[in-house]
Amino acid sequence: MLAGSYYFKNYHAPLDKQLFISALKQYKEKADVYLLPDFYDIIEKKFNGNIKKYADYMYRKSVFTDSSRFKRAINLKKNNLIDDPYMIFDHVLNKFYYTTLKTGVGQYSNQLDSLYQLYLALLPLIESDHTFYPDANFTLRLSYGNITGFMPSDAVTYNYYTTLEG
Question: pLDDT digits over 76-95, tens only?
């Protein structure tokens, strides 16, 4: 398979661009200022705060938004993707996630775990008329015998595996 052909098979740049613009606008409107990644500074300084102009630039220049640009970039001997607008966006977003969001969420993780244990201990007392069953999520499950599909009625078959098609 040619490089990128699977990715670009169902890719529609105008729709992707609309979603990108909408997501950036929504996040900027809803998030607190300290939760805005640095690419909003880039948008403010280089594009006068105009998210649409930023998106136009990104979708016009990035190799990741056009199959022919992507194929040309892949075939180059010296491939300098570090200056690609999408790579810059991705780098800033990842840096923001690991330095701001992940560390901020991590501090509450232990507290949440201990409160969840307390919640589970108190739940049967609060809802005494309800039957509670063990939670099997995140546990090792063992099966014995042959794993096969299931045929509940004529012409209806459920496989033992799932696919993206259902």
Answer: 766 678 889 999 999 999 99
